[in-house]
Amino acid sequence: MKSTGAAISAPGLLFAVAGVAALLTPFMTLAANRIVAGEGVLAWNIAGPAAVTPGLIAVLGGLGLGLLQRPASLRLGGAVLGLGGLLWLLTQGASCLLAETGEYARVSPAVGFWVLLVVLMLLMADALTAMAPKPLMRGAILVAVLGALAIILGSGALSDLSVMQEYAGRSDAFAREAVRHLGLAFGSLAAAVVIGFPLGVVAHCRAALRSATLPVLSFLQTIPSLAMFGLMIPILGWVGATVPGARALGIAGIGFAPAFTALVLYSLLPVVGNTVAGLAAAPPAALEAARGMGMTPGQRLLRVELPLGLPIILTGLRIVLVQNIGLAVIAGLIGGGGFGTFVFQGLNQTATDLILLGALPTVVLALTAAIVMDILVDLTRRLPEDAT
């Protein structure tokens, strides 16, 4: 006889075990000031029972719904319910823990919160993978998530947290470094496309150039990031000191220029390599049909090879963008700005929440960029299918 019971999701079971285990670890920390480590507080001790119980029920209920293999929409609802309970516990705990403390006291999420956050986000990702939403629906979900995050942050519900207090004292600097971080990541991507795409097209057409270019770019990719940033300092320092007008353009041994140049060099291999691979992926039958129609090599490139290879080319751009968003953090070491400024300031001051002020937006930005690029890749893959 076949079992009529609800099937258990293997990932959901793993997430539930990890989530319950996380509840046995400190959920928040209370510190006398922004520098000391602080004391961990378990989830059921962060506030009174009336305040804690709804949040705990929501988190446990969300993990319980995640156990069900079908329907996937129920698992998605469980993830949303659990995240709501996590937010409730965080806001209630922050206000209650600070109620009877000194002026300089700080409260922060602890390991239990972060593990639960990762578990519930993985549960949401697993449910969405099973539901397999179309690209436009994935875009709508991303907009909804980012909108909800913006509303939560703008409402002031998390203002008692130490990381938000770090932001409150540095809001102008945060906006400035955010623009600098975006400039490093997206600007280096744009420069790599301007340089790498034509180079990839020519390398696709000429085997000799391809065999000479790709090994050099592969070698650049193997240089550790800190070493690459360090190599740029003396080179651009010499250029700024000897080339007339270079320093006026901002070219110097430290600052934006060496960080930007290093990111462009790191970006060239994925752009050139994926351009070559994408253009070479056109089926021979399609190329023969194009020749039979009398298309010139340039027309075959623009009308056949490029449209068919676009998903692979965009995959290379996705790699570059996500990579550069992360690597731009290291630019803070050489005065390049960006969110890395807060990360390294926090390391120097042993201020964990100042580190988070730089790390968290970097993670959100990288995840958002990856999802958007995945949507674009999926859309370009569907174009030939829709055309047929």
UniProtKB/TrEMBL annotation:
The main location class comes to membrane
Q: Where are the transmembrane segments?
A: 41-65, 72-91, 111-132, 139-158, 178-202, 214-236, 248-269, 301-321, 327-347, 354-377
Looking up Gene3D superfamilies in the UniProt record yields:
MetI-like (1.10.3720.10)
Q: Which family does it belong to?
A: Belongs to the binding-protein-dependent transport system permease family.
Assigned keywords, A-Z: Membrane, Transmembrane, Transmembrane helix, Transport
- A GO biological process this protein is involved in? transmembrane transport
The protein's name in its UniProt record: Osmoprotectant transport system permease protein
Subcellular location as annotated? Cell membrane
Start and end residues of each ABC transmembrane type-1 domain: 178-373
Pfam families linked: BPD_transp_1
Known PROSITE patterns for this protein?
A: ABC_TM1 (PS50928)
Q: Which GO terms describe its cellular component?
A: plasma membrane
Q: How does it sit in the membrane?
A: Multi-pass membrane protein
What organism is recorded for this protein?
Sulfitobacter delicatus
